[in-house]
Amino acid sequence: MNTNVSLTLPAPTAKVEAIERSPGFWSGVIAKLMRDPVALGACAVLFALILIAVFAHQLVPSDPYQTSMIKRLKPIGFDGFPLGTDELGRDMLSRLMLGTRLSLFMGITPVLIAFVIGSGIGILAGYAGGLINTLIMRTIDILYAFPSVLLAIALSGALGAGIGNALLSLTIVFIPQIARVAESVTTQVRGRDYVEAARASGARPFTIVRVHVLGNVLGPIFVFATSLIAVSMILASGLSFLGLGVRPPEPEWGLMLNTLRTAIYTQPWVAALPGVMIFITSISFNLLSDSLRSAMDVKS
Amino acid sequence: MIFYLLRRIVYTIPIMIGVAFFCFLLVHISPGDPLVSILPPDASIELQKQLMRLYGFDRPWYEQFATWFWRALNGDLGTSIASGRPVATEVMRAVGNTLMLSCMATLIGFLFGGLFGFVAGYFRDSWVDRVASAFSVLGVSVPHYWLGMVLVIIFSSWLMWLPATGAGPGGSGEWAWDWAHIQFMVLPAITMSVIPMGIIARTVRALVADILAQEFVVGLRAKGLTDLGIFLHVVKNAAPTALAVMGLQLGYLLGGSILIETVFSWPGTGFLLNSAIFQRDLPLLQGTILVLATFFVVLNLLVDVLQTTLDPRIQRS
Amino acid sequence: MIDTVLEAGDTEDGVRPVSAGPLLRVEGLKVVIRSGGRAVRPVDGVSFSIAAGETFALLGESGCGKSMTALAINRLLPDAAVIEGGEVSLGGDDILRLPETRMRSVRGGRVGMVFQEPATSLNPVMTVGAQICEALQLHRKLGAAAARAEARLLLESVGIPGADSRLDDYPFQFSGGMKQRVMIAMALAGRPELLIADEPTTALDVTIQAQVLDLLAGLQAERGMAMLLITHDLGVVARMAHGVGVMYAGELVETGPRQAFFQTPLHPYARKLFAALPDGARRGSMLDAPVGSVPALDQAFTGCRFAERCAQAFDRCDDESPRWQQVGSQAVRCHLYDADSVPRPLHRTSGAAFGQADASAGTPLIEVRDLAVHFPVRKGVLRRVVGQVRAVDGVSLRLGAGRTLALVGESGCGKTTVGKAILQLNAASAGAVFYKGENQTGLTREALMPMRRAVQMVFQDPFASLNPRLRVGEIIEEGMVSLGVAGDGPSRRRTVDALLERIGLSASMRWRYPHEFSGGQRQRIAIARALAVSPDVIVCDEPTSALDVSVQAQLLNLMRELQRERGLAYLFITHNLAVVEYLADEVAVMYLGRIVEHGPAARVLGAPAHPYTRALLDAVPKISAGSSDSLPALAVASDLPSPLDPPAGCHFHPRCGLASDICRVSYPAERSMGGGHRVRCHWADASARGLRRPD
Question: How far apart are CA C162 and CA C160, in angstroms?
Answer without folding.
Answer: 6
